[in-house]
Amino acid sequence: MKPMDSTLRIYEVSPRDGLQNEPAVVPTAAKLELISMLVHAGCRDVEVTSFVRPRWVPQLADAVELVSLLPQVEGVNYWGLVPNQVGLERAVEGGIRCVATVLSASETHNKKNVNRTVRESLAAIEDVIATALGGGMRVRAYISTVFGCPYEGHVAPEASLAIAERLLAAGAEEIALGDTVGMGNPRQVEAVVALFDKAGIGVEKLSMHFHDTRGTALANALAAYNVGIRTIDGSVGGLGGCPYAPGASGNASTEDLVHMFEAMGVDTGISLEALAEAGIYAEQMLGRDLPGRYHQYFRGARQRANARAAG
Length: 311
Known about the structure:
By secondary structure, the protein is α/β, with parallel strands linked by helices. The chain has helices at residues 14-18, 28-41, 63-69, 85-94, 107-114, 118-134, 157-170, 186-198, 217-226, 254-263, 272-286, 293-310, and strands at 9-12, 45-50, 77-81, 98-104, 138-144, 174-179, 206-210, 231-234. It has twelve helices and eight strands.
């Protein structure tokens, strides 16, 4: 177990990973309001959209317009997912300065996600990273299905390690290890981090992206923190899912992460109450209940308070 330094960076993904799988297209103005509420709550790294082809993910077709309208706040980094060079060109057009790339450790999932082999994706992403760095941009790199694949089942962690080594050599500043369908468990998290550490990739280069499909996101987040990980992805209200991963329910809820870690004395820099308000807005915006546990508690407490006031 690594010594705790009592801080944690939360990387917020709800505007992108949260909305990409929604059946309805959320208006740009509503997305901007959600992002503004997240920033007001203290989120300093927000993944706001993906520069994919609009016909692939129509929910994020407004990426360029959205980025051009983002409120500029000192210390806040807005990130956009770029699948390829064309996506990077659209990101540059929108004016975003921080980009994320993605590929899967699983051949089958990668093929279904981007219609390429892992080798083809990796070569293309290396070119994207080189172009982005040449333009003075920051680059984060996701590896999906690190802890299991909905099509192949077990994924050898050595496969993820080999990909990460290539991505870091290309210039990515951070590798986000994704539990894309919530198959991971705490011992698996510990083993993967230990494997990377043995290979010379320290925890300062790693972040974790958990899904709560099987109710293990918080346990996995705590296990990651205990072995030194200091960046964990969250999505307000537990919003999210992957359109190319059957059974991938919501991401780790940001409110749940903030509540647990702050209660442990770990500083996230995020106001839980303001964050919970953003979760309520997201729920109203989508017109459906969100799965986050603290979100449900907060909503219920508000409803009871309103009922008392009305009575």
